[in-house]
Amino acid sequence: MRRLFAFLFFLSNLSIVFAQVSSVVTVIPQPVQAYVREGKFELKADTRIHFPQGKPDWATAAQYFMGVAQAATGFQLTGLPFQTTPASLRENGIYFLPDETVERSEGYQLEIMPTFVAIRARTAAGAFYGAQTLRQMFGPNMGSSTPVKDSTWTAAACIITDYPRFPYRGMHLDVSRHFFPVEFIKRYIDLLAIHKFNYFHWHLTDDQGWRIEIKKYPRLHQIGGCREETLVGHATDAPPRFDGKKYCGYYTQDEVREIVEYARKRFITIIPEIEMPGHASAALAAYPELGCTGGPYEVAKTWGVFEDVFCAGNDKTFEFLADVLKEVCALFPGEYVHIGGDECPKTRWKACPKCQKRIAAEKLKDEDALQSYFIRRVGEILSRHGKKLIGWDEIIEGGLPAGATVMSWRGTEGGVAAVRAGQYAIMTPTSHCYFDYYQSDPAQEPLAIGGFLTLQRVYDYEPVPSTLIEEEARFILGAQGNVWTEYIPTPQQVEYMAFPRACALSEVLWTPANKRARGDFLRRLRIHFRFMDNMGVNYARSYYDVKASYNGGYVSLSTNDAMAQVKYTLDGSDPKPTSPGMYSPIPLSKSTTVKAAALVDGKFPGRVLTVHYLVHKALGKPYTLSAQPMQYSGGEKYALTNGSIGALRSWANWVGLQDADFDPVIDLENTTPIQKISVNFLVGTGHLIYPPRSIEVFTSNDGENFTSAGKRDIRVDELVGNRIETVSFNLGGVGARYIKLVARRYGPAPKTGDKTWLFLDEISVE
Ligand code: TNX
Fold first, then answer.
1. Whole-number pLDDT of residue 5
2. Residue 18 has what pLDDT?
3. Which CATH number fits domain 168-535: 3.40.50.200, 3.30.420.10, 3.20.20.80, 3.90.1150.10?
4. 552 pLDDT band (50/70/90 cuts)?
């Protein structure tokens, strides 16, 4: 990985330094430019914080810094407003200096000298970012919210010139599926501020709960804010289970104002999202007259997309929304309001006389055009309040409403279409920005919605699609990480899912693309982890996960962290610092449980990897299949004989076929006595993974003439939900070179007739 080196820089009459800048400046997101100087600045109890008088935003930036510094150091720092910019900077002072010569509006220049610190910026926001950088320059202890004893508070002398790459740097939080208390929303905002995010997208309403008080419609929070119970497990589990507990929560307008103000002091603009026309079950439960059928409706207690949506033919809907948005616009001073627009099924509109009348009267082409009509009308309401509309990319279907900003989530096409039409876009594609997706092996992770998005993948994200020319690219405002909370019930879990992926995204959004280097990011992240440890952030430690791979009788173990040592055991016990380290591939001659973890500074910060290797006669042997798996290939060419068995929640090891029979023919390469053949299959009927109807094994010595060695019919109707089943055949020592297995597909799913999957793994031969 390339690193930044500062070569000989002649800086006024100070001594010349030759230093590896990035090893001293361990800030996330990585600043644009940093030159290290000699010495360091020490923050002491009598350090003074100077800021301009009569500029409230500047006072806010300075006071924020004083607040966090006081909390960590325990010092009572003195803030001193000045009237005119001081000509010389006094010893032991930290200066917030308005400076018109700093080019970018959110940019800053941070000068850390042994005697003083100066943060120069054109705007208070720039000064705030400078202060965040300074805070990180004091080291991980500065993350503490209680005084750290016996710490010295020094920051390496340097000059940092910095500004963001994108004007929109967002993080989102869904408070509908699960509700999070005011205190946590503030903490989340603090965490965003540290990473120089400037937008918080607050997803306040959805099918499962309306979470913002609207004075004119109190039933929204009274009825729409409560669901009877909540789904347990995954939405695709069959049969569904519920917890039987009422789940309620909403923010009063006073609380909203408090949070808006809190965010303002951290230079974060909140974008409220009020979902329409879909994801509206909670609102309809409160005011059923706003739906096409008139109800009754209930606040959703499971996850997904619901057919009952706001009626687009009813003028009352628009009156209601105008009233709601009037209150929302008054609460949120930012220029944007997000109106959702995603996942709106048109079933009800198709059958609704009022909607059909509207389509005819407005000469609309179809229901998609009706959705555009809906969004346009809402856009007019917003512009009367001086607000701009943001919507998910579905708002393009049926015609992109003029002036709307598109949030592109189903890939980047929506964003591309918007910028080609000369409108703004914010990128949040599921592929790189969905922090509700798994970040590591699902078998070891807490239950999540699905997907797979690693820290590295987030870091490698490029928000500007390469198909855009420069003029178009300017319309990409930035990107955003989304934290949908169907499977995220607690604040701790929000932190776990959001961090450190949000750290990576912050760098994608802030740092110039050519200054981004993954290896260097990971190095800085290790230090940043300590900062977050001091804040008590429950970030995911998957960075320290150990990966195992099996090849030709040997297991190799590796981890992302170049500084870590992988320790392992083969006796089923957890690795200890004294366990053997992984220096060369480990030979396996019998079935073994490998346990491994990454040792860093004498500790195991990550989790212990456990892999069961089944050493058997077919291990590593090649086989043929007449139907090839398209997506679920088990990750390796011969995954059915690779010694490791698929786990319940991870589809990584399973070999899956859709609407086809399995018929592997394994070549043992020599005539081999066979006692027993076992095979596992996965059942996940909610995911359309069904058991085979039967499994039969055959043996052969020439690969052409096969003799049946046993057949098992599976009692498929008893196998629902999620489970792993094993089927074994005793062959009593018969000698054979080839083994063929035929697993017959289930066929179409009951009721729906959908194509089903068959997932097998590890055909083990003893
Ligand atoms: C799709 S993203 C949704 C949300 C879900 C999310 C889960 C979007 C605009 N709609 O309602 O929570 O997927 O990943």
1. 31
2. 38
3. 3.20.20.80
4. confident
407 has pLDDT over 80: yes
What are the structure tokens assigned to 192, written together?
A: 């965003």
334 within 8 A of 388, measured Cβ to Cβ: no
* Pocket flag, ligand 1, residue 392 (CB < 6 Å): yes
342 Cβ inside 6 Å of ligand 1: yes
- 506 Cα–ligand 1 center, Å: 21
> Which atom of ligand 1 has the smallest separation from the CA of 482?
2
- Whole-number pLDDT of residue 723: 87
Is the domain spanning 2-162 CATH 3.40.50.880? The answer is no
Neighbour count for residue 621 (Cβ, 10 Å): 18
Q: Specify the pLDDT at position 9.
A: 32
The finding on whether 451 has its CB within 6 A of some atom of ligand 1 is: no
Indicate the average pLDDT of the chain. Answer: 93
Distance 305 CA to ligand 1 centre (A): 9
Phi, psi torsion values for 513, nearest 5 degrees: -55, -40
Alpha helices of 56-181 — where are they, by DSSP H? 56-73, 124-137
**Strand 247-248 relative to strand 226-227, pairing:** antiparallel
Is the previous residue joined to 239 through a cis bond, with omega within 30 degrees of 0? yes
Give the C-alpha separation, 665 to 34, whole Å: 61
Hunting for tokens 């987030």 — which residue is that? 458
Q: For 166-175, how does the pLDDT look when each residue is reduced to its tens digit (9 = 90+)?
A: 999 999 999 9
DSSP secondary-structure letter at 657? Answer: E
Length, in residues, of the chain: 766
For domain 542-613, the CATH class is mainly beta
> Which amino acids are annotated catalytic?
206, 279, 343
Q: What is the pLDDT of residue 644?
A: 83
Instruction: Give, for ligand 1, the residue of 234, 274, 281, 343 to mutate: max count of ligand atoms closer than 8 Å to Cβ.
Output: 343
